[in-house]
Design a protein that fits this description.
Elements lengths: L1 E7 L2 E8 L2 E6 L9 H7 L3 H9 L11 E2 L9 E5 L3 H6 L9 E5 L4 E2 L5 E3 L6 E2 L2 E7 L8 H4 L3 E9 L1 E2 H4 L15 E9 L11 E6 L2 E7 L7 H8 L10 E3 L21 E6 L3 E9 L1
Parallel strand pairs: 5-16, 7-13, 8-18
Antiparallel strand pairs: 1-2, 1-4, 1-13, 2-3, 5-6, 9-12, 10-11, 10-16, 11-13, 14-15, 14-17, 17-18
């Protein structure tokens, strides 16, 4: 199943792909099932029941709506740094034996089509195409073998980073949490519609149409299953939590000269079967 979170005329909505188009309802409609976070947290058959209702709803003209992040207010957004060996090498870091974890906050999230904002305090706005896994059921001290059973679905992320602020301290929080820098979308695709852990899929990032990153999901040092299993040993992952799984080589920071995103650029992150997340770049 493929869901889109959207807003139209000031009302939040949810749509599902059905018969080659998207059909959906908004908070104005009596049968509106709730947003994705509500449905994921509800558990059981909530997602499939909502999908059945949405499949009978009116068709949505996606050119006339504003895309929202699939899960706009998760309890946790856990990001993995240095999760592709070639990216660790280009960044000047030794490949870690334990995932390099950091957090993002909800205030940084934007949907497909919304502008990524280059703040006035820096020119060092960089792209990072990434796969997202969304937790579906509580995961506490789970094994790697069982980890993927706790995933509800997947999406695409652009972990746009303000590099000089990222490296102002050993912790990366500042550079990873500027407002309107976390592109997330365009869709939420349920795990049962994809290969396990998205293995076999290819991630491609394009800046103004030119490919700047490309790698297979299989190239990650810590797979989705491993990351969930490791994180669950020290924190309970809750339904709706978002795991941003890391970026491959090709980032602007590592290029000579550096390639920073600037006003007027368009950055696209594509993952097979998960769609294209596209965001224009705008100055604050």
């Amino acid at each position: 199943m493929k869901f889109i979170a959207f807003e139209t005329a000031g009302h939040q909505g949810l749509a599902i792909e059905e018969g080659g188009c998207f059909r959906g309802l908004t908070t104005q409609d009596a049968n509106y099932p709730g947003d994705l976070l509500f449905l994921i947290r509800a558990g059981g058959t909530a997602l499939t029941d909502a999908a059945a209702d949405l499949a009978k709803a009116p068709e949505i003209d996606l050119t006339q709506v504003r895309y929202l992040p699939p899960v706009a207010a998760p309890e946790k957004i856990v990001c993995v740094g240095l999760n592709y060996r070639d990216h660790s090498a280009e960044s000047g870091f030794e490949q870690p034996d334990f995932p390099t974890l950091f957090g993002r906050f909800n205030s940084s999230l934007i949907g497909h089509g919304a502008p990524i904002i280059r703040p006035a305090v820096s020119e060092q706005l960089d792209y990072e195409g990434e796969l997202v896994a969304i937790i579906g059921t509580e995961a506490c001290k789970v094994s790697e073998a069982d980890a993927l059973s706790h995933v509800s679905g997947y999406s695409v992320f652009n972990d746009a980073s303000i590099r000089d602020y990222q490296f102002k301290s050993p912790q990366w929080t500042a550079g990873k949490n500027f407002d309107d820098t976390g592109g997330f979308g365009p869709w939420f695709v349920t795990a049962d519609a994809l290969p396990e852990g998205c293995l076999g899929l290819t991630l491609t990032t394009r800046l103004n149409g030119a490919v700047v990153q490309q790698a297979r999901i299989d190239d990650m040092v810590f797979s989705v299953a491993q990351t969930i299993a490791i994180c669950s040993q020290f924190m309970t992952l809750k339904p709706g939590d978002v795991i941003v799984t890391g970026t491959p080589s090709g980032v602007g920071l590592a290029r000579k000269p550096p390639l920073w995103m600037k006003d007027g650029d368009i950055c696209e992150v594509e993952i097979d079967e998960l769609g294209i997340l596209s965001n224009p770049i705008r100055n604050a």
